[in-house]
């Protein structure tokens, strides 16, 4: 994602990042949100973010056009949240209208995902973040446990509802991977927001029917990982993994075709990958993970980089076989 000459005017950036309604929550979020998992030194990224740089990145986020920051209790066993809390303290509070979303997780060692674990996560998240309530709280990675257990009376989902009723969480969401499982959670009628990752990108359309279903239910949609873990930001010269696993040859071949189209049109690959998600009217916000302060301004530019409709037509013709999608 290196900067390129040219690019959008300030007015275009401001227009591209006007907040959108997040389903029926009443929240309005910028079409791009900042993902804070890299600030928690999550192992899948293969690198660590130093403390000072993490805080600088967060302070730059608070001063940017973005108003939506996403984290989780499990990102670095609370490290991401602690760093956000420290940045909030150094700034003297969050900007008006800024929204921090976090997630409850199964215990990292025992894999306990009980009601008690959910409450413990939420309470510890508030302490680390230094906030009195959580604007948006997700059930995170429910695929690590049984749907029947988590959705049972007295289980994790029921505890989330209690947290909302008590005012600890203003709104509830579900965030995970497998699309069929996420649909089951949406059908419980509890969740107002869906967060899907790596399944709605230039390479993978697994979440298409899930997004339609969410819209039918009035559920807000947040799409994470538009770069597929980096492949759609750096290109095939940078890495050969998609969604943190080795990419099959057909996906790498598709990326090479996408790279060629973008190079010919003088469009950064990352801009096309990001805007593929942003231009979907079903998606309220697209999450981009960052680990350096300079990436904040760069991401603003990518969000508004001019891309002709002819380029989108050519990109749409680059088909990847459904057999290679994550689902």
Task: Walk me through the topology.
Elements: H1 10-16, E1 20-21, E2 28-29, E3 32-35, H2 51-62, E4 68-70, H3 79-91, E5 99-104, H4 115-129, E6 134-140, H5 147-151, H6 156-165, E7 169-176, H7 179-186, E8 193-197, H8 208-217, E9 220-224, H9 231-234, E10 241-242, E11 245-246, H10 249-265, H11 269-278, E12 285-289, H12 294-304, H13 309-316
Parallel strand pairs: 3-4, 3-12, 4-5, 5-6, 6-7, 7-8, 8-9, 9-12
Antiparallel strand pairs: 1-2, 10-11
Helix pairs in contact: 1-12, 2-3, 3-4, 4-6, 7-8, 11-12
Question: Mind explaining what this structure looks like?
Answer:
By secondary structure, the chain is α/β, with parallel strands linked by helices. Helix content is 40%, strand content 16%. The chain has one domain: TIM Barrel (Alpha-Beta Barrel), CATH 3.20.20.100. It contains 13 helices and twelve strands.
Please tally the helical runs, counting DSSP H or I stretches of 4 or more residues.
Answer: 13
Overall CATH class? Alpha Beta
What's the structural domain tally? 1
Shape: globular
Report the average pLDDT across residues: 96
* CATH topology annotation: TIM Barrel
Task: State the order of secondary-structure elements, H for helix, E for strand.
Answer: HEEEHEHEHEHHEHEHEHEEHHEHH
CA radius of gyration: 19 Å
Distance between the termini: 27 Å
Largest sheet: 8 strands, parallel, barrel
Relevant terms:
globular; 8-stranded parallel beta barrel; alpha/beta; 327 residues; 13 helices; TIM Barrel; 16% strand; two-stranded antiparallel ribbon
């Amino acid at each position: 994602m290196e900067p390129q000459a040219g690019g959008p005017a300030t007015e275009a950036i401001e227009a591209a990042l006007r907040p959108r309604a997040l389903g029926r929550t009443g929240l309005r979020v910028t079409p791009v949100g900042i993902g804070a998992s890299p600030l928690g030194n999550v192992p899948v990224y293969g690198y660590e973010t130093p403390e000072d740089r993490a805080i600088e990145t967060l302070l730059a986020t608070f001063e940017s056009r973005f108003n939506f920051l996403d984290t989780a209790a499990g990102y670095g066993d609370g490290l991401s949240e602690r760093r956000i809390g420290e940045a909030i303290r150094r700034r003297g509070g969050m900007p008006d209208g800024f929204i921090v979303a976090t997630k409850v997780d199964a215990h990292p060692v025992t894999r306990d995902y009980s009601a008690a674990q959910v409450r413990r996560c939420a309470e510890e998240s508030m302490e680390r973040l230094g906030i009195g309530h959580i604007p948006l709280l997700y059930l995170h990675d429910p695929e690590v446990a049984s749907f029947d257990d988590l959705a049972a009376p007295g289980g994790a989902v029921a505890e989330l509802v209690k947290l909302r009723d008590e005012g600890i969480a203003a709104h509830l969401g579900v965030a995970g991977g497998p699309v069929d499982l996420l649909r089951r959670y949406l059908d419980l009628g509890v969740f107002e927001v869906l967060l899907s990752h790596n399944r709605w990108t230039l390479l993978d359309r697994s979440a298409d029917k899930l997004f339609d279903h969410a819209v039918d239910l009035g559920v807000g949609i947040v799409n994470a990982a538009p770069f597929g873990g980096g492949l759609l930001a750096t290109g095939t010269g940078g890495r050969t993994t998609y969604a943190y696993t080795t990419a099959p040859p057909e996906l790498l071949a598709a990326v090479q075709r996408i790279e060629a189209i973008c190079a010919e049109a003088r469009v950064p690959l990352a801009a096309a990958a990001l805007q593929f998600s942003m231009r979907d009217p079903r998606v309220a916000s697209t999450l981009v993970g960052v680990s350096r302060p300079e990436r904040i301004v760069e991401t603003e530019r990518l969000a508004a980089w001019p891309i002709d409709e002819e380029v989108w037509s050519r990109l749409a013709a680059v088909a990847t076989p459904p057999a290679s999608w994550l689902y």
